Amino acid sequence: MNGISVPRHLHRLVGQLAMVGFDGTTVSTELKALAREFDIGGVVLFARNVEAPEQVAELVHDVQRLARDTPLWVAIDQEGGRVARLRRPFTEWPPMQALGLSGDDHLAEEFACALALELRTVGISLDFTPVLDIPTNPNNPVIGDRAIADRPEEVARLGAVVIRTLQRYGVAACGKHFPGHGDTSVDSHLDLPVVEHPPDRLRAVELVPFRAAIAEQVASIMVAHILVPSLDAERPASLSRSVVRDLLRTELAFEGLILTDDLGMRAIADRYTLERSAVAAIGAGSDAVLLCDTNHERHAAALEAIVRGVESGELAIGDVDDAIGRQQSMKARFGPDPHRPAPATSGSTSAAVAEVLASPVPLSRDWRPPSPRTLRAVIGSDEHQTVASRLAEFAC
User: What is the mean pLDDT of the chain?
Assistant: First the structure.
């Protein structure tokens, strides 16, 4: 092992660097086995995991029981519009383009407050939102109305409001898709998009909302599976040290979690094995890889590859330690804190909302599902539906 000192419990440490998908509406035996071997950092929920608010809350509770010492992230893509894993009776939000068309900071805050409360009520601790891409290509097949606006300053301002509000209510936010997926003509779920802009253009347009998100102390940033030849002519951004370490971590001074987009997307999967892409992503500087399919044998193989990368010296143990340290630090930031005051709410706040806010935060092994009565009082409430209706008035 080239004289490298490798911890005996490396499997458990490396597991913190993965967030995995799974099948079904309960915790499976296979997921339990994966968590037992690797102490995974978190799970990602999809529509396949959702039946009803009560079921989601029980599922999240059971997921947290997989934790040994550190609670798991329970993450979801709940943007609004066509990217929403939670449907009725949860509030169904219009696409975020409507927020940009409103131009209303207060409406953005009301939206993010309602979204955070519904997520928090069922125990979800990380939302992969907001989209911070600038949709400069009208033929973009994947971003479109998911983008807040087409002006960088507008995306930066409203994105910051969403981030600040989500996180004030105990739900970690995630800015995506770094360094900017807005000017692409290919969907990275299907192939590898290429962004031909020079660095000066990226800094003047695409990176503006990400700087604002970093200033707002966004918990995480997701790196896109796009090729930006002016930054790295060979590797997709998600696997590139130039993009992840040099640009995001060093130049932009981002101190939060860096996540990959799903490594199962064809932009990556058609070019790399899952094992190779997982090792490359951690080597590039990511703090966690998203493994969103439901094949736990593949998840285990990817994590084993990271272990072997550390043992062989391909991955520096110090870099892995740093990534794990950032995971632990961010989980502490969003975890239980007896001295953290409950977030302030309006005078119309219901007793159910007050109960949710007084309960342990979602990123906690002590989190428990609220009563069915409380769940139904918060999820899809009349107040939230009113906010959604006001927002929908601006939708194209």
Answer: 94
